[in-house]
Automatic annotation (TrEMBL):
<dbReference type="InterPro" id="IPR006093">
    <property type="entry name" value="Oxy_OxRdtase_FAD_BS"/>
</dbReference>
<protein>
    <recommendedName>
        <fullName>FAD-binding PCMH-type domain-containing protein</fullName>
    </recommendedName>
</protein>
<keyword id="KW-0560">Oxidoreductase</keyword>
<feature type="domain" description="FAD-binding PCMH-type">
    <location>
        <begin position="88"/>
        <end position="262"/>
    </location>
</feature>
<keyword id="KW-0325">Glycoprotein</keyword>
<dbReference type="Pfam" id="PF08031">
    <property type="entry name" value="BBE"/>
</dbReference>
<dbReference type="InterPro" id="IPR012951">
    <property type="entry name" value="BBE"/>
</dbReference>
<dbReference type="InterPro" id="IPR016166">
    <property type="entry name" value="FAD-bd_PCMH"/>
</dbReference>
<dbReference type="GO" id="GO:0071949">
    <property type="term" value="F:FAD binding"/>
</dbReference>
<dbReference type="InterPro" id="IPR036318">
    <property type="entry name" value="FAD-bd_PCMH-like_sf"/>
</dbReference>
<feature type="signal peptide">
    <location>
        <begin position="1"/>
        <end position="25"/>
    </location>
</feature>
<dbReference type="InterPro" id="IPR006094">
    <property type="entry name" value="Oxid_FAD_bind_N"/>
</dbReference>
<dbReference type="Pfam" id="PF01565">
    <property type="entry name" value="FAD_binding_4"/>
</dbReference>
<keyword id="KW-0732">Signal</keyword>
<comment type="similarity">
    <text>Belongs to the oxygen-dependent FAD-linked oxidoreductase family.</text>
</comment>
<dbReference type="InterPro" id="IPR016169">
    <property type="entry name" value="FAD-bd_PCMH_sub2"/>
</dbReference>
<dbReference type="GO" id="GO:0016491">
    <property type="term" value="F:oxidoreductase activity"/>
</dbReference>
């Protein structure tokens, strides 16, 4: 068999689980007019934080321009986020680069005393930039300095600082007897927002969501108190922080996570057709997802599909060494389909598979790049939408869907990803993540080319989205957050929204952790 090297960077990136921060409900004062300067904040932070803690007061904030106790700094807030594209319309009072939980406690003490909104930034991958908050003159706590990794092989757990990115975790866990975590495929993503929103990834059919393996957390509440959160200490909060999203109730500073064994071998099989076969391929994929009698997919298989106006690709990833399982699945898939125009297959160890998610395009694989020494975080400009499905898209819906795709021009990618397997075995009410009965999700992502074509591209994206909305569950994954969604509490939280609302009032009734999409 001819072996082709498969470039999986784009597939992996689409599956990245991005940091998301959520928040509250009640009325907020207009900070643009109620504060003339931030001198009181500077005085408080200077008195409580060690000199080694870096603070930046951006000059783009009017209140900082009026400070007489400290000099403001010309600083571009968008540099803190991996996601670009007109999402930032406010300027913070200060960015604090904390190094431990006590720093976070001190910042919250000042915020509570002086009535500032606080938002925590982990990896900077919120689809709508919510790691930076969304209100004028807020405090941003940058968590990147809390990035320790402690692997305990004896009890098969890892303890991680909330600012740690997935890449270093994958690398260090693999050095300890080939362990890993069942997290997302983008190594750059920050742990905190990813895990708190659920933590979906390529191992989810095999091991569930990352939040399903979170055993304990340390967190600072709105009053600046450090909490230990697990099944017996703050059990309601433990429930909410596993799938309810980040930044809404407390600021988590540490995670203890159950590790899983990394696959011995990872094999990726890619089948590519030209657009004239798109409808047949999508119908076959849906049959694969919904007909357990015919297919009955093993949980160590992850079958995704990417559609655009140039081609359609089914990607089958197999986490195992018995390749007959993979071959049978491919044979069943192709039984009623035309011969693919391109076929690619490639096998590699788990850490190399994760390394491919960096997208370095380097033939000399060096796993140490996953530690991000001397690497600059890539940035992206895109808009995304997402929907869950518990039934196939109708033939009429597929016709409209494909017709709309053919009408546009631009960098559009639509990915179908499975949400079944081990995810389905966990009761819906065991964690705050409510979407455990769906078969697959569809993510639509369009990349920014230039400002002149942006409106046309957004119109195209919305038109395609509308063709498949009717057949969907009308629900979505909080880590793929979309600010344009109406009735968003139901869209993301479904049957859990009332309990989350009650817990929000209990833990943050004064809206200390406010931003645009509030739990209400």
């Amino acid at each position: 068999m001819i072996i082709f090297i498969l470039n999986w960077f784009f597939i992996l990136f689409l599956l990245c689980i991005f940091q998301v921060n959520l928040v509250t409900t009640t009325h907020l004062p207009n900070y643009r007019f109620t504060r003339t300067n931030n001198n009181d904040l500077y005085t408080c932070l200077s008195s409580l934080l060690p000199l080694t803690v870096r603070t930046i007061y951006p000059c783009s904030t009017i209140a900082n321009q009026n400070n007489f106790q400290c000099k403001c700094v010309h600083f571009n807030i968008t540099n803190l986020s991996a996601i670009r594209g007109g999402r930032f319309s406010h300027s913070p009072a200060v960015i604090v680069y904390v190094t431990d939980s006590s720093d976070v406690q001190n910042v919250l003490a000042c915020a509570a005393n002086l009535n500032y909104v606080v938002n925590a930034l982990s990896g900077g991958h919120s689809y709508e930039g919510y790691g930076l908050g969304s209100t004028y003159n807020n405090i941003i706590i940058n968590m990147e300095g809390i990035n320790y990794i402690k692997i305990n092989q004896h009890d098969r757990t890892g303890t991680f600082g909330a600012g740690t990115r997935l890449g270093p975790i994958y690398y260090e866990a693999y050095q300890s007897d080939n362990y890993t975590i069942n997290a997302g495929s983008c190594p750059w993503v920050g742990l905190a927002g990813h895990a708190l929103g659920g933590g979906y990834g390529l191992l989810s059919r095999l091991h569930g969501l990352l939040s399903d393996n979170v055993l304990e957390m340390k967190a600072v509440n709105a009053q600046g108190e450090l909490l230990t959160i697990n099944e017996t200490h703050e059990p309601d909060l433990y429930w909410a922080l596993r799938g309810g999203g980040g930044g809404s109730f407390v600021i988590v500073t540490e995670f203890k996570i159950r590790l899983v064994k990394a696959p011995l071998l990872t094999t990726q099989y890619s089948l590519v057709w030209y657009p004239n076969a798109s409808k047949l391929v999508i119908q076959r994929y849906q049959l694969l997802m919904f007909n357990n009698t015919i297919f009955n997919l093993s949980n160590d298989l992850f079958v995704s599909m990417t559609v655009n106006h140039l081609e359609i690709t089914i990607s089958i990833t197999y986490f195992g060494i018995e390749l007959d399982v993979l071959k049978r699945t491919v044979a069943l898939l192709l039984e009623t389909l035309p011969t693919p125009n391109i076929t690619k297959i490639h096998s590699e160890d788990w850490l190399t598979f994760v390394y491919d998610g960096l997208g370095l395009g380097n033939s000399n694989v060096d796993h140490r790049y996953l530690l991000f020494k001397n690497l600059t975080m890539p940035t992206y400009c895109f808009k995304a939408k997402h929907l869950f499905y518990d039934k196939p898209i109708s033939d009429h819906g597929l016709d409209q869907f494909l017709n709309r795709i053919a009408l546009g021009i631009g960098e559009l990618y639509i990915t179908f990803s499975p949400w079944d397997g081990h995810i389905h075995t966990i009761p819906i009410d065991k964690t705050a993540f409510p979407h455990r009965r769906y078969k697959f999700g569809i993510q639509l992502m369009i990349y920014c080319n230039d400002t002149n074509s942006e409106k046309k591209q957004m119109k195209w994206l919305n038109e395609i989205y509308s063709t498949i909305y009717h057949d969907s569950t009308k629900h979505s994954y909080i880590n793929y957050i979309d600010r344009d969604v109406p009735s968003w509490m139901d869209y993301y939280y479904n049957t859990h929204q009332q309990r989350l609302h009650n817990l929000k009032y209990l833990y943050d009734k004064n809206n200390r952790f406010y931003f645009e999409k509030t739990i209400k």
